[in-house]
Write a structure and sequence with these properties.
alpha/beta; globular; 5-stranded mixed sheet; Rossmann fold; 51% helix
Amino acid sequence: MNRYRLRVALIGVSRLARALKLTGNLNATEPVGPVVVLVMDKDQIAGYRAMVVELRKAGIRAEMFLGNTKNFGKQVSYADKRNSPAVIIEGSRERDQGIIQIKDLIAGKEAAAAITDNAEWKAARPGQFEVKRGELVAAIQKLLSEQ
């Protein structure tokens, strides 16, 4: 099969899948995406990669954000688009303290429905908690089992 026919076949399959979802003849739920490790400091890429490797070795789907790292909101938005259950945050403050922040995106979405004020949202940080860096895998396993 040449490349043109393969492309046409792929486009046809995706349209068919979309039509089946719309008619209720295909499971409409999105699969859970990977845990996304956010990049807060470009000079710490090796540490972020190590987190991804640890998670993958434990059988947890994970990836590191590879886009423009200057905008925290865009990184979280990317994770939302990937249907990620959680993001891992380690900035310089967390690194100095030997901790990481885990943001449970599912709990955050549920809490967002009840919070109407942006200042209240920022103060509450729903679904976000910190753990010791060495407890990353156990914390993510626990979070995933509870979701």
